[in-house]
C-alpha cells in the first residue's frame, strides 16, 4: 500500500463521516450509515460504504486521490438524491444547521430523488442540471458559512460549459473550476 493511498483513504473517511455527522446534527430523519474497510472486513480494501435506505454508494479511495473537494460534493449530491428528506425535520436546539441540508426558512431541503445520479469520474460527462447540482453541492460543502445563494450559479455553469463544451465532466481542472466559482460571487 502506498503512503499516498493510505492518506487519501483516511481523508476520504473523514470527509464522508463529516457529511454524515453534519446531517445528524442538522436533522432528525432517515438514517445514513457509513462503514469503511478498516472496520468492516467484508468491504474491499481502502473503500467506504454509504447507505441511505435501500441505496448504497461504494467509494474506492484510490479513485479520489487528491480530489477531496470533489469527493465531498459527489457524496453530498448522492445523499441529497437518496435520503428521503420529506421524512426529516430540523433538530431542535441545534446550534448551527449545515446549509447543505436546509433551505431558507429552516426546513429540510425537498426530496431530490428525480435527479440523475452524478458520477464525477474521468471521462464521465454530466448534463447541465447535474452540473448545477454539482456546483451547488461543491459550494455548500466547502464551508458551513457559505451558501450557493451567494453565487451566480447559472453564470458559473455557463462559463464552465464555454470552457469545456456541453456535457461538462472532468474536462475542467480544479483550479479553473474554483477560480470560476470565485469570479461569480455576488457582491464580491
Account of the 3D structure:
It is a single chain. The protein has five helices and five strands, in the order H-E-E-E-E-H-E-H-H-H. The protein has helices at 3-26, 68-82, 128-142, 153-164, 174-183, and strands at residues 27-28, 32-36, 47-52, 55-60, 89-90. The strands form two sheets. A three-stranded antiparallel β-sheet has the order 2-3-4, with helices on one face. The protein has a two-stranded antiparallel ribbon with strand order 1-5. Strand 3 and strand 4 (55-60) form a beta hairpin. Helix 1 (3-26) packs parallel to helix 2 (68-82) and helix 2 (68-82) packs across helix 3. The longest helix is centred in the first third of the chain and has 24 residues, at 3-26. The protein starts with a helix and ends in a 5-residue tail after the last helix. 30% of the residues are buried.
How would the blueprint of this fold be written?
Layout: H1 3-26, E1 27-28, E2 32-36, E3 47-52, E4 55-60, H2 68-82, E5 89-90, H3 128-142, H4 153-164, H5 174-183
Antiparallel strand pairs: 1-5, 2-3, 3-4
Helix pairs in contact: 1-2, 2-3, 3-4, 4-5
Amino acid at each position: 500500500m502506498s503512503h499516498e493511498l493510505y492518506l487519501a483513504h483516511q481523508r476520504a473517511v473523514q470527509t464522508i463521516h463529516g457529511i454524515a455527522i453534519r446531517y445528524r446534527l442538522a436533522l432528525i430523519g432517515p438514517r445514513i450509515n457509513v462503514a469503511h474497510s478498516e472496520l468492516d472486513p467484508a468491504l474491499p480494501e481502502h473503500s467506504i460504504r454509504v447507505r441511505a435506505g435501500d441505496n448504497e454508494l461504494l467509494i474506492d479511495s484510490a479513485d479520489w486521490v487528491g480530489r477531496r473537494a470533489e469527493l465531498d460534493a459527489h457524496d453530498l449530491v448522492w445523499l441529497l438524491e437518496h435520503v428521503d428528506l420529506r421524512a426529516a425535520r430540523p433538530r431542535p436546539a441545534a446550534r448551527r444547521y449545515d446549509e447543505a441540508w436546509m433551505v431558507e426558512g429552516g426546513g429540510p431541503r425537498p426530496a431530490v430523488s428525480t435527479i440523475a445520479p452524478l458520477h464525477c469520474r474521468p471521462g464521465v460527462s454530466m448534463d447541465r442540471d447535474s452540473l448545477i447540482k454539482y456546483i451547488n453541492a461543491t459550494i455548500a460543502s466547502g464551508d458551513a458559512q457559505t451558501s450557493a445563494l451567494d453565487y451566480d450559479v447559472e453564470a458559473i455553469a455557463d462559463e464552465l460549459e464555454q470552457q469545456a463544451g456541453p456535457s461538462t465532466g472532468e474536462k475542467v481542472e480544479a483550479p479553473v473550476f474554483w477560480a470560476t466559482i470565485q469570479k461569480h460571487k455576488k457582491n464580491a
